[in-house]
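quick one before i forget lol
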Amino acid sequence: MNVPFTALRPQVITGWFALNGFVVASWVAHIPRVSAALGVPPGTLGWALLCMAAGSVLGMVVAPWAIRRTGAGRAAWMAALAFALLLPLPLSAGSVLALAAGLLLFGAAHGLLDVAMNKAAADHEQTLGRPVMAGFHGWFSVGMVAGVGTGAAALLIGIPPLVHAAIVIVLAVGVLSTGLPSKTSSQQAATDLPRAAGWGGRRVAALAGVAFICLFLEGAMADWSGLLAVAFGAGPAAAPLAYCAFTACWAVGRFVGDRLTSRIGDVFIVRAGGILTAIGVGLGLVGGTPIWVMAGCALTGLGIANVVPLLFRAAARTTFDGRGLAIVTGVGYAGFLVGPPLVGFAANAVGLPRAMWLVVVGGLALAMGAAVLRRQTTFHCRAGAKKGSGAKKGSGVFFTNLI
């Protein structure tokens, strides 16, 4: 079925974000089990996780070509389907080599999906002329919560990994069955925007650096929070609840993010988020019990919830053709996937609790980098997209915000 992209656009994009989070979390929930089944030390597991980072970089390199050829909508749809279909590979890996190979392919689909869906979301936000990026990312967090919860339940009642993967694939097909965006309609949002020369320069580089730090922290929490709970005495079935606490507060924070930032400002949100991240992880490490780890993860989730949407929104305003957003997204998610292996290497040398102090340091670095959002940029949208906007259809309207 080939449903016009513009007819279902908000719902379809929401589905991609939620599905992305659900599939990622379905893998994350199984990391402690896979680690125990393979009997590998943290450093060896870190090398395998690095293969997912490499695959994601490959997917992000391919993404601009795929978007130009098929449009952001169709590229995101196809990547989402491939991402779900590849889930059985890491879940059923019987060796470190098989895990690394599976994560390489799994990561490639993930990287392509991330860039394409964020490009589609940025186009939609420009069409509306008001901020909605945090809401889309909120649905990603909802998907993460559902994925971790489903994974924890599957582990608790003993559902085989491949059966769990099959359930995820069926759900993915259901989400994507609303229709395959057509090539023409999926590109429509960008066809009447003026093209900017260059890639955004220092502004994009600064945003990309902060995005790398933020997603480094998110990646570390995704892959190691459960194992940190295990290190302090949690069982394999209870361990995913630490990350579930993170994602639950993460989702709540994102759904109020657009209203909150309009009141107290983007810089304050990012700076406070970095400080709360450092405090939350430090709380879990000093407390030294699974309950303290879960409480710290919850606080960290609240703190970091709106940083990525704010950075991606700012990046979308740097160039009209999405190149700045693609760079910031790619560099940011490289941090998401590089972070866990680096923590794993450190854990192999000094133990996981000490290695997680890297996340505390990262939170403080994020707080210091918040100033990058002070610069004033211009937000372009096509007026007339929203009824009652007061602008004539087809005219260009520019909203200037201090970000």
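fyi DSSP finds 18 helices and two strands in the chain.
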